[in-house]
């Protein structure tokens, strides 16, 4: 793993709240699909951008998307809706992090309507140095019971991801 003199390694754990990020946009017709709803790919891009900001904050420097572990769409998002994303680090390893993103939508003209949970996603980011090699990230310090649950679930997703890769690699070598 490369060390980057321009990105000093932080040895103390960073809390889940340290790097938490929220972004928002008003969906326009340029994001619409043939049904008149916001295209899922645009929602994915916003979620990835939010996760990237969290990864940068937690790692103290550049980080890249290594995988999108899962994205679930729960409700359609309409042109004109206010789309908000909320993201935080769920788990941190040596150089990688899982970032969880919640996406909500609310009609722009009606503040009385409660925001709808419209999508959730889990991204894996790897912190990189100036040469594009992986670098260490600070440990994660959970703060709430919800953070502990998120970390446990992230560890399950990671174990499944690694087991799936090992099984595929084994099948290809036979």
From TrEMBL:
PROSITE patterns: HOTDOG_ACOT (PS51770)
Domain HotDog ACOT-type: 17-131
Keywords of the record: Hydrolase
Gene3D superfamilies found in the cross-reference section: Hotdog Thioesterase
Signal peptide: none
Source organism, top-level taxon: Bacteria
Family: Belongs to the acyl coenzyme A hydrolase family.
Listed name of the protein: Acyl-CoA thioesterase
Annotated source species: Nocardioides baculatus
Upper taxonomic lineage: Bacteria, Bacillati, Actinomycetota, Actinomycetes, Propionibacteriales
